[in-house]
């Protein structure tokens, strides 16, 4: 999987089999959405969802497969210079694939409201209240300069929730070490067709489709 491959250059020797033959690797594929393109309306319209998924995410997947192929060749040749030069493209396209794969599951036509159980307790513990958390994550997402993401992540070492913002397609875990629970895409392609340049309106709307069951399940998994 891309998560395993991503930034795991230290273990890249495992990809090389004896006699220079390379172990066959599954190509990355675009995941299906768990709902229809129009399912998140009126908060995110069908046209945005279709373009975002079938064009933007698909492009990251295709480019990631191309980059990994080139990386594999460079690895087989022991060409470290090329391996290093491919890392920005691996980070960008690998991150784009990781981020969007999480994002689609973080949204649901039955979403919105507030989380329950352990996640809600942790939010109250680490942010004071759900309202305070919502305000902080919204502010971090609005404040991203240019393109990027706002995240709720889990800091495993400290055992607490943390908010972070990442530029471009930098993946949360690969760049900050935080385990991603909830990502908000603030690239213009995620909202421009509907909200024009008013990012705060999009951020206000997206809370109506947040899939708290998915976020809670991610939290439960990373606490194990």
Automatic annotation (TrEMBL):
It holds the Pfam family Sod_Fe_N. Keywords: Manganese, Metal-binding, Mitochondrion, Nitration, Oxidoreductase. It is an enzyme of class 1 (oxidoreductase). It catalyses: 2 superoxide + 2 H(+) = H2O2 + O2. It is found in: Mitochondrion matrix. Signal peptide: none annotated. Belongs to the iron/manganese superoxide dismutase family. This is Superoxide dismutase. The gene is Sod2.
């Amino acid at each position: 999987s891309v998560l395993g491959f991503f930034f795991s250059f230290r273990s890249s020797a495992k990809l090389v089999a004896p006699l220079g033959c390379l172990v066959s690797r599954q190509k990355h594929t675009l995941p299906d959405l768990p709902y229809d393109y129009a399912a998140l309306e009126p908060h995110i319209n069908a046209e945005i969802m279709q373009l975002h998924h079938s064009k933007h995410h698909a492009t990251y997947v295709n480019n990631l497969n191309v980059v990994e192929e080139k990386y594999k060749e460079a690895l087989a040749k022991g060409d470290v210079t090329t391996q290093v030069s491919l890392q920005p493209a691996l980070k960008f396209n690998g991150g784009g694939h990781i981020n969007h794969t999480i994002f689609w599951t973080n949204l649901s036509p039955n979403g919105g409201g507030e989380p329950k159980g352990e996640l809600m307790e942790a939010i109250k513990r680490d942010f004071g209240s759900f309202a305070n958390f919502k305000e902080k994550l919204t502010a971090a997402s609005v404040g991203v300069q240019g393109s990027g993401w706002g995240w709720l992540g889990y800091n495993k070492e400290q055992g607490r929730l943390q908010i972070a913002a990442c530029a471009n397609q930098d993946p949360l875990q690969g760049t900050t070490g935080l385990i991603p629970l909830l990502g908000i895409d603030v690239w213009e392609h995620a909202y421009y067709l509907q909200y024009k340049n008013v990012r705060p309106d999009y951020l206000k709307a997206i809370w109506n489709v947040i899939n708290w069951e998915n976020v809670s399940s991610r939290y439960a998994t990373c606490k194990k």
